[in-house]
Design a protein that fits this description.
By secondary structure, this protein is mainly α. Helices cover about 60% and strands about 10% of the residues. The protein folds into 3 domains: about 160 residues, no CATH class; about 140 residues, no CATH class; about 80 residues, no CATH class.
Length: about 475
């Protein structure tokens, strides 16, 4: 039962890997920039993965433009009446969907079921088909994942070495029986397995360069290297023998179609031999890579700051604190991880370029200035000139001081609107007169108000019944003349 369940799981994962290809055909009718129903998108996707896999080397992969150029003849055969620009757009659309551009991790996720001790359980299978990696020179290239290669060869999670041996035996048998059409498919599958074997070694070396402790160099990797070298030795003998048989079949036959297929097989098997040669050189250098990385990581010194376990040392203890106590560590953490704020002072290079920038044209910044509509100014003086003159006459008290209550009563008898209010305001202002301002302005007199404790008995105003009088102001020039005299 366990073996049957394991086989079912493998087949379900294999179906999951093909789901993104079927999804292309399901969504092609919704494209608004072309009538894409004529295109077989799943076939184009398989051809795309094929071209990326063939172009992959140990350290590099296929460029985007290179893959699109190889796809165009295949797409043009599906829709020869369409424009070349549409063919390019279809190729880019398929390539972007295989990379899964637009998602966070650029991966696919499918749900499958498995039967275990707890019964039927749903599980998630995360995978990618094409990935973008950066070369040391900064160029971005494409590589096909193991799942993508398994989609091509029709298997999933198979042992690389056993699959390669089976492919070689199958290829040799097909050639000996003269079935060159089937032999071409078997040769392509053998090449895919060779690429996948190189990917396994490359992943181990990349993990070693990041952290030598993450890879088991005591048992796992040495066994991998030994088996890989034995595998390459056997493959060299088999592929050279197969290449010899194909060459004889190509040269001896008179059938043009058979000669063409034999020539294609010669190229494929020759490419397999070249790939095995490069893989052998990488296997020979693997030990040196391990020793160099071990020395570099061992003697690089301890880290300047200990690594913090955010989950165990910060999140879990903070969640157990009361709200008032948890605010402080949370604020310190988020202030520290928020990043560096932009400086308010620009850098020297930015400042120099800013100062040397020519002044902008005024005509480009402002348009035609509209003519303003002028409105008559509002009258802000509550009291008119007549009221001010009447108040000046009442408050001219050069001889005898007078009470504010008497001045207010006299102002009311004049029946001039606002006179009493203006007299009251000027009396209050005179309680602390601006003598210095009066001297600077050249005023001869200034109004003074004194509070002798008498309360004001008035129907409209309250407070102290101030005693008002006019005092003479000596100007500054008179004081200077007296000092000179």
């Amino acid at each position: 039962m366990g073996l049957a369940d394991e086989g079912l799981t493998r087949r379900l994962k294999a179906l999951a890997c093909t789901a993104p290809l079927h999804d292309l055909d399901a969504r092609k009718a919704k494209l608004d920039w072309a009538d894409a129903t004529i295109y077989q998108m799943a076939e184009i996707a398989l051809h795309t993965i094929d071209q990326v896999t063939i172009a992959m080397d140990f350290d590099t992969g296929a460029g985007h433009d290179e893959v699109i150029d190889r796809l165009l003849p295949f797409i043009a055969q599906q829709a020869p009446s369409r424009m070349p620009d549409e063919h390019v757009r279809v190729a880019k659309w398929v390539l972007d969907n295989l990379i899964n551009v637009g998602t966070t991790d650029r991966g696919f996720r499918r749900v499958y079921g498995s039967i275990g001790p707890g019964g039927y359980q749903r599980r998630q299978f995360d995978f990618k088909l094409l990935v973008e990696l950066a070369a040391p020179d900064g160029e971005v290239y494409l590589r096909a994942t193991d799942e993508a290669i398994n989609v091509l060869v029709g298997a999933l999670d198979t042992d690389v070495e056993s699959a390669q041996i089976a492919a070689e035996v199958k290829l040799e048998n097909l050639i000996n029986r003269g079935r060159l059409a089937d032999a071409k498919l078997a040769a392509e599958q053998a090449r895919y397995r060779t690429v996948q074997y190189g990917e396994t070694l490359r992943a181990k070396l990349d993990a070693t360069r990041r952290d030598v402790r993450s890879v088991d160099w005591e048992r796992e990797v040495p066994e991998l290297l030994d088996s890989a070298l034995s595998h390459i030795e056997a493959r060299f003998r088999a592929e050279n023998a197969i290449l010899k048989n194909i060459t004889i079949a190509r040269d001896d036959t008179e059938d043009l179609d058979r000669k063409r297929r034999a020539a294609e097989l010669v190229d494929i098997v020759g490419d397999c031999i070249r790939r095995h040669t490069r893989l052998q050189s990488r296997l020979a250098d693997a030990g040196a890579v391990f020793r160099a990385e071990q020395d570099r990581q061992q003697f690089s010194g301890p880290p300047q700051r200990a690594t913090i376990d955010l989950f165990g040392q910060l999140l879990v203890p903070t969640l157990g604190l009361p709200l008032a106590d948890a605010v402080a560590p949370a604020e310190h953490f988020f202030h520290a991880v928020a990043g560096i704020s932009a400086p308010v002072v620009p850098s020297l290079s930015a400042l120099v370029s800013l100062l040397l920038r020519p002044a902008p044209e005024r005509d480009q910044l402002v348009g035609e200035i509209p003519e303003p509509e002028l409105m008559p100014a509002e009258v802000t003086d509550k009291f008119g000139d007549d009221v001010w003159r009447a108040a000046d006459e009442l408050l001219d008290l050069a001889e005898v001081p007078r009470r504010l209550s008497g001045l207010l009563e006299e102002a009311r008898r004049s029946r001039q609107p606002g006179l009493a209010a203006l007299v009251a305001l000027r009396a209050v202002h005179a309680y602390s007169p601006g003598v210095g301002a009066a001297r600077r302005q050249g005023d001869r007199h200034v109004l003074l108000a004194v509070d002798d404790g008498t309360l004001l008995d008035d129907p409209d105003f309250g407070g102290a019944d101030l005693l008002l009088s006019t005092a003479a102001v000596e100007r500054a020039d008179e004081e200077e003349n007296e000092e000179v005299a």
